[in-house]
Amino acid sequence: MRFDVLTIFPEMFSALTQWGVTGRACEQDLAQVKLWNPRDYSSDSRKTVDDRAYGGGPGMVMMVKPLEDTVNAIKTDHQAQNLSSGPVCLLAPQGERFSQKLASDLLKRSNLTLICGRYEAIDQRFVDRNVDLQISLGDFVVSGGEIPAMAIMDALIRLIPGALGDDESALQDSFMNGLLDYPHYTRPEVYETLSVPDVLLGGHHAKIADWRRQKSLELTLRIRPDLIELARANGLLSREDERFLQDLVK
């Protein structure tokens, strides 16, 4: 999958392209990241990409033309590479809440363009003319779109077949089956007074699977009961799950 990222701070993305799971995926060409700086498409000598807001108020606003010229350059590059342009996504507080389902849906596209805003805002005319989807990580504000963009790219890259050492790892992540993940343990078997649950030491795969499912249900009910209702609405809970949840509530 190819990611085209519009940012005035391209150096920040070395954290994603050079390290860990995402770095290995880029090295193996499972994911391609191309960075585009709108300052390179600014027409003045200062490479200006922002100006004061009409109507007054604090902060600066990113200008339409440098951003739009950058997006057009990205689309031209797609055409030269015989790629169909995927959605143009803006990282913004008012966007759709990012989720594992949205990550899976976006992964179906061959490429994704991510717009990393800075300053107070982006000129709304750029958004209206160029943006297909706005995405938010949650109800909070950060200094720019770079960190949210990297979080989204990380979430997608780990879903690409071959990106993880074991593809089953992604399938067992929290939210993949609508629930939170179950607890995990490793050596030593006893740490101070805390022991690994006996069921995990017995080697009985069916019992381990049952224990993990029940712990996943228990944790989700306690921390994120909203996910239980969503999983129920989507038909992700079995009769055994429902019986276990009823016992927990009792």
Automatic annotation (TrEMBL):
GO terms for cellular component: cytosol. This is tRNA (guanine-N(1)-)-methyltransferase. S-adenosyl-L-methionine binds at G117, L137, G138, D139, F140, V141, V142. The keyword Phosphoprotein does not apply. It is an enzyme of class 2 (transferase). One of its GO terms (molecular function) is tRNA (guanine(37)-N1)-methyltransferase activity. GO terms for biological process: tRNA N1-guanine methylation. Homodimer. It comes from Polynucleobacter paneuropaeus. Its EC number is 2.1.1.228. NCBIfam families: PRK00026.1, trmD.
